Amino acid sequence: MSNLSEAFVGLDTSKLRNSVAIAEGGRTGEVRFLGEIDTTPAAIRKLVKKLATKYERLSFCYEAGPTGYGAYRQITGLGHDCIVAAPSLIPKKPGDRVKTNRRDAVTLAKLHRAGELTAVWVPDCGHEAMRELTRARRDGDDGFAPEAPAGISIPAAAGPALCG
Length: 164
Fold this sequence. Notes:
Elements: E1 4-12, E2 17-24, E3 31-38, H1 41-54, E4 55-63, H2 70-77, E5 81-85, H3 101-114, H4 125-139
Parallel strand pairs: 1-4, 4-5
Antiparallel strand pairs: 1-2, 2-3
Helix pairs in contact: 1-2
């Protein structure tokens, strides 16, 4: 089977599972939901390698959030394009309030193909380490680390450990 030219992959990331959708290049390219994968580096690597056998060019995207930038660094490290989209700048239809992982992944893939996503700046490992240090110092100012107030979630990212 010959390689297709390009594909745009939308990832809806979460702490435990990532939903994956793909939009083939061109205006009439097929858009489909591929399924869910684990959030482990091995699962992402397996997905990228599988898709790389079918497409000459892959471009990934996912929404910025508490999962951090580990997937971005891994995907770009494997030689593919990846953007982290600003959640507040993702176009949404009026009245479209139903959110599912599947729908979000398909929407991200479609919008990425159309060039409608705004990327955020992804800090390098040095910047991310400095941010972690600043947070640790701020939390340790009183001699103890305060508990997170109700309604505030702790980031699921492993911080600078993903840089190494």
